[in-house]
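Write out this protein's structure.
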Amino acid sequence: MIRITTRLLLCTLVAVAASHAAAQAPADPATVPAFRELDSMEARVQGCATCHGQQGQGTNNDYFPRIAGKPAGYLFNQLRAFRDGSRRYAPMNYLVAYMSDAYLQEIAEHFAALRPPFPQPQPATVAADFLDRGRTLVQNGDGSRQIPPCMACHGARLTGMVPGIPGLVGLRPNYIAAQLTRWRTGERRAAEPDCMHRIATRLADADIQALAAYLGSLAAPQDHSPDPRNVQRMPVACGSQR
C-alpha cells in the first residue's frame, strides 16, 4: 500500500509539473525524462519484482521462479493462462486479470530479453543413487515407460527452446517438484496435445523428487539463451510449440 501510494503521489507531482511547464511553453511529453521513466516497461513491471526479482532472476522463495531469459512464447502462454484462469495462483490471477493479449506479449518479451546472472545452485541433499536416478531421466528418459529425456525438449543445456518450452536450469527443487505434480494431476494444463501432462502421469513420486533434486543441483551454462525452434526433433507432439 505504501509503495502504491508513493507511486501515485509521484505520478501526481509529475503531472502537476508537466501541466505548469505546458502553460509556459508547449512540450512533447516524450521528451520529458520523468515521463519516459514512468512510461517504460521496466517501470510498468515493478509489480513483478517483489516475487520474481528486479530482473526476473527469481527470489529466495522456492515457489517464485526465475522468469528472465525464458522464451517469450512460453511466458506469454503462462500470463494468458493466469489471466484466463486455466492456471491458478490468486496473486497472479488478480495481477493480470484485465490485461490485453498485446500487453501480456510486451511483458513476456521484456523478461525474455533479460539475462541476469544465475546464483550458485545449492548442493543436493539426497543420496547419490537417488540423484543418479534423476540424471538418468533428464539425460536418457525411460523408454520402457515412454518417458522421453528432459533434454530432448528442454535442450541439451536445459535452457529451453523457442517459442514455448522453458529452461529448467536455475529452478529450485521444490518448485520443480510442485509443477510436475500439478502437471500430473491436471491442475496445470497447456494447449493440446498437452505433452507435459502425458509425460508427468508416467512419473512416480520418487521420479519427481529425483528429477527435482538433480535439476536443482545444476549450474547454469555460460550461454543460457534458449535453443532456436526445432533445433532437434521432439520425441512427442507438444501444443506449446505451435
